[in-house]
Amino acid sequence: MITPPLELNGKKYPVFIHLEDRDSSSVNIGRKGISIRLPRSISRDEMAKLIIKSKHWAKEQLEKNPLKEEIIKNYNNGDKLIVGDKEYLLSITYALKQSSSAKIHNNLINLNISSELPEPKQKEHISSLLSRIIAQQRLPELQSKIKQLNEKHFQAPLNKISFKKQKSRWGSCSSKGNINISTKLLFAPDDILESVCIHELAHLKEHNHSDRFWTLVERAMPNYKEKQQWLKQNGGEIGF
Fold first, then answer.
1. Distance, CA of 60 to CA of 63 (rounded, Å)
2. Cα angle 68, 129, 148; round to 5
3. The model scores a pTM over 0.85
4. Are the beta carbons of 87 and 81 closer than 8 angstroms?
């Protein structure tokens, strides 16, 4: 479902409406547009009011923090990539084929990239493959961390835990109890990653950003605002 775009400073932001089996609404600003998720059960009048309120909120956020153009890093054969406390050596080759692939063994990452693609697409393939393969290697650590935090602070039903290459969100929590964490956080200090995990775990109990939600977050991490500030100041510099 699409509603008229949000216009701001001469730019139009597409607005997408998603009706879902959920108890509350949520808004996400991404590079493709603004996604508003609403409960399927609400009336048309309630829906209209929530859409207006959500677009107003999105406008305020975009005025404070305009979306920056995504910068894809450049990687070359023989480069060393430091992710957290691990260092990887990159071996990048090119072949006449349509697809690209990656393999990892210990700290060596072999990337085989399609030479038929234009250079910007090759950079995208390298970035996506690095994100995916390192996330696969580090996923057990993330799953263990989130399960421990949940047991310690929330004891909430928890489903699937995944890394995801999210461009505009540090994490997400679905109504089914699935938690996704941005692969960009692989480059963040452990306490910053932990703060995002706690944020998403709190959504297992409160699917909103109400006072009750922030009380849950603060109870689990009293200095969470410091972590939020770190992300605001440094978040644009981390990632693949």
1. 5
2. 85
3. no
4. yes
- The neighbouring-strand residues paired with 18 are 37
Q: How far is C-alpha 45 from the chain's CA centre?
A: 32
- Cα 22 to Cα 164: distance, rounded to the nearest angstrom: 22
Q: CA dihedral in degrees (103, 124, 63, 195; nearest 10)?
A: 0
Distance CA 166, CA 30 (A): 9
Q: Which helix (H) or strand (E) holds 143?
A: helix 119-149
- Token pair for 135: 């996330």
Q: Maximum CA pair distance of the chain?
A: 59
Q: Which amino acid is at 192?
A: I
Give per-residue pLDDT as tens, 10-22.
888 889 998 888 8
Kindly give, in sequence order, each residue whose CB lies less than 8 Å from that of residue 156, ignoring residues fewer than 6 positions away: 150, 177, 201, 204, 205
Cβ contact 81:88 at 8 Å = yes
What is the Cα 171 distance to its own chain's centre? 5
In eight-state DSSP terms, residue 33 is: E
